[in-house]
Structures are given as C-alpha cells and as structure tokens.
C-alpha cells in the first residue's frame, strides 16, 4: 500500500505535472514548426532553386533493379534532402525557443528592477519606541 501512495505522491508533485505539460506542449510545438518548415517555408525556397523538392533530394548509391525471379530490389540512397529539412526544423525550433526565453528573461528583469515598497519600522524598533515612551511617563 505504501508503494502506491508514494508513487501517487510522486506523480502529483507540481514539478512532474509541469514537466509532463512542457513535454506535451513541446511536442505539439515541434509539429507546428515542422509543418511550417515543410509546407510553408521550403516550397518557395525550392521554387527559387528551380522547382526542387527538398524531400526528394538524394544521392543514389545503387539503382533499383529486379532479380532473376522478377522481384524488385529497392534502390540504395542517401536521402540528404530530408536531413536538410530536419536541420532547418531544428534551427527554427531553436530560434523560437531562444526568442521565448529572451522575452521571459526580460520580464523577470523588469520584476527584479521594481523598487521594493518602502518598509516601515521593524517590530523591534516599534517595541523599543513604546518602551522609551513608557519610561518617559
């Protein structure tokens, strides 16, 4: 019984819930950036480079053939176009995270720069004042 209670306490800690939320949101954000790169950014770049589809760029090491039994043997290739697109996804995601963190740091700095509210006398000072007033009476 103690094991399950400890496990439940572990799962319901704020840090774990925050981490799970961050992973889910990060995964969704990654899909958005991948779609942006693949569907919005790369087509105009490919068009500017002469109608190139980056996902189709590859270096063929061995052409597709058929064997004696008539079965197709797939080509062997290095698909560097997909790699280029993945690298661009990474750079865009990194840039977006950088911008979010910069904005976060800027907002934290503004909070730190706010002057602290003027403090009144401490409890000890007030008690000392009251004591001194009582002595004078």
TrEMBL record:
<comment type="similarity">
    <text>Belongs to the MscL family.</text>
</comment>
<dbReference type="InterPro" id="IPR036019">
    <property type="entry name" value="MscL_channel"/>
</dbReference>
<dbReference type="Pfam" id="PF01741">
    <property type="entry name" value="MscL"/>
</dbReference>
<feature type="transmembrane region" description="Helical">
    <location>
        <begin position="83"/>
        <end position="104"/>
    </location>
</feature>
<feature type="transmembrane region" description="Helical">
    <location>
        <begin position="12"/>
        <end position="33"/>
    </location>
</feature>
<comment type="function">
    <text>Channel that opens in response to stretch forces in the membrane lipid bilayer. May participate in the regulation of osmotic pressure changes within the cell.</text>
</comment>
<dbReference type="InterPro" id="IPR037673">
    <property type="entry name" value="MSC/AndL"/>
</dbReference>
<dbReference type="GO" id="GO:0005886">
    <property type="term" value="C:plasma membrane"/>
</dbReference>
<keyword id="KW-0472">Membrane</keyword>
<comment type="subunit">
    <text>Homopentamer.</text>
</comment>
<keyword id="KW-1003">Cell membrane</keyword>
<keyword id="KW-0813">Transport</keyword>
<keyword id="KW-0407">Ion channel</keyword>
<keyword id="KW-1133">Transmembrane helix</keyword>
<dbReference type="GO" id="GO:0008381">
    <property type="term" value="F:mechanosensitive monoatomic ion channel activity"/>
</dbReference>
<keyword id="KW-0406">Ion transport</keyword>
<keyword id="KW-0812">Transmembrane</keyword>
<protein>
    <recommendedName>
        <fullName>Large-conductance mechanosensitive channel</fullName>
    </recommendedName>
</protein>
<dbReference type="InterPro" id="IPR001185">
    <property type="entry name" value="MS_channel"/>
</dbReference>
């Amino acid at each position: 019984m103690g094991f399950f209670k400890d496990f439940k306490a572990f799962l319901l800690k704020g840090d774990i819930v925050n981490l799970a939320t961050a992973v889910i949101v990060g995964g969704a954000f990654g899909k958005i950036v991948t779609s942006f790169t693949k569907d919005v950014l790369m087509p105009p770049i490919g068009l500017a480079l002469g109608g190139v589809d980056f996902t189709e760029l590859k270096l063929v090491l061995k052409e597709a053939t058929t064997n004696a039994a008539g079965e197709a043997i797939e080509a062997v290739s290095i698909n560097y176009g997909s790699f280029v697109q993945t690298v661009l996804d990474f750079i865009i995601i990194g840039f977006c995270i950088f911008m979010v963190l910069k904005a976060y740091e800027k907002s934290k700095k503004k909070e730190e720069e706010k002057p602290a509210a003027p403090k009144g006398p401490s409890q000890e000072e007030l008690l000392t004042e009251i004591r001194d007033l009582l002595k004078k009476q």
